[in-house]
Amino acid sequence: MYAIFHENKALIFPSINEEQIDFFATRPQSDAYEVEFFQKFLNNWLTNPSIADTYVEHISSTVLTSALARTFRLAPAAGGVVFSESKLVCIVRNGIPDLPKGHVEDHETHEKTALREVCEETGIESFHIVQKLPTTWHCYDWQGEWRLKPTYWFAMRTDSHCHLKPQTEENIESVKLIGKEELDPFFRNTFRSIRDVLEKDIRKFMDSMPPYQTQEAASEDFEIV
Q1: DSSP string over the chain
Q2: Do 10 and 53 form a contact (C-beta atoms < 8 A)?
Q3: Mean pLDDT, rounded, for 147-157
Q4: Closest CA to 56 of 16, 99, 17
Q5: Closest C-alpha to 98, from 142, 151, 45, 58
Q6: Other CB atoms closer than 10 Å to residue 68's CB: what's the count?
Q7: d(Cα 219, Cα 52) in Å, to the nearest integer?
Q8: For residue range 67-112, what is the model confidence (pLDDT) as tens digits?
Q9: 183, 141, 152: which is closest to 7 by C-alpha?
Q10: Vertex 43, ends 7 and 39: CA angle to 5°?
Q11: What does pTM read for this prediction?
């Protein structure tokens, strides 16, 4: 299933997987009519506040990708779901609970971006990637231009003595460690894309986290410069 989030609603494609969305693939001209039709539907979904969650069953991945490419500028990002022992590292940005993330720079891998952004936004310097998590996709209007942001998420570990420092120049007001008892209000108040896509994995990780052990390879994952 593939889903795009806009504000508090979702456009859901049950028969399409994220791996089928390739903005750089060659697309056949024979799909032009279907692409134009779906693009009009997409524009209406984006701009009409009375339209809520919508399921789209009968559409090919090539038609969908073509319509997305015509409608949006791609703005990829990456971020970290960071665990310190059995607690989750979260940030508060503009009053909204969130997870550390940021835009992918030129020639930067998703892993490198996620590690860099976690360090910059939280102040944590010693951590490593555990595994890749599902990607969230949300769209927004930026100065009259529609942008589609895939955020590539990675589960990470840090030690219990991590130093937390918010990146205030990015409007981050605080960095917090939250336990299981604080997850409900976090998910209730964070962005829907995080809640719908990552909640299950976050709860599973927090239930199964073993004690943190420093890894020699961690220094190879990220170098502070």
Answers
A1: -EEEEETTEEEEETT--GGG--TTS---GGGHHHHHHHHHHHHHHHH-TT---EE--S--HHHHHHHHHHH-EE--EEEEEEEETTEEEEEEETTEEE--EEEPPTT--HHHHHHHHHHHHH---SEEEEEE-PPEEEEEEETTEEEEEEEEEEEEEE-TTPPP---GGGTEEEEEEE-GGGHHHHHHHS-HHHHHHHHHHHHHHHHHPPPP---TTHHHH----
A2: yes
A3: 96
A4: 16
A5: 151
A6: 21
A7: 45
A8: 999 999 999 999 999 998 889 999 999 999 999 999 999 989 999 9
A9: 141
A10: 130
A11: 0.88
- Pairing type for strands 54-55 and 9-13 reads parallel
Hey, what are 57's tokens? Answer: 């069953």
Name the token pair of 138: 């949300």
Which residues on adjacent β-strands are paired with residue 11? 4, 54
Structure tokens at 125: 């310097």
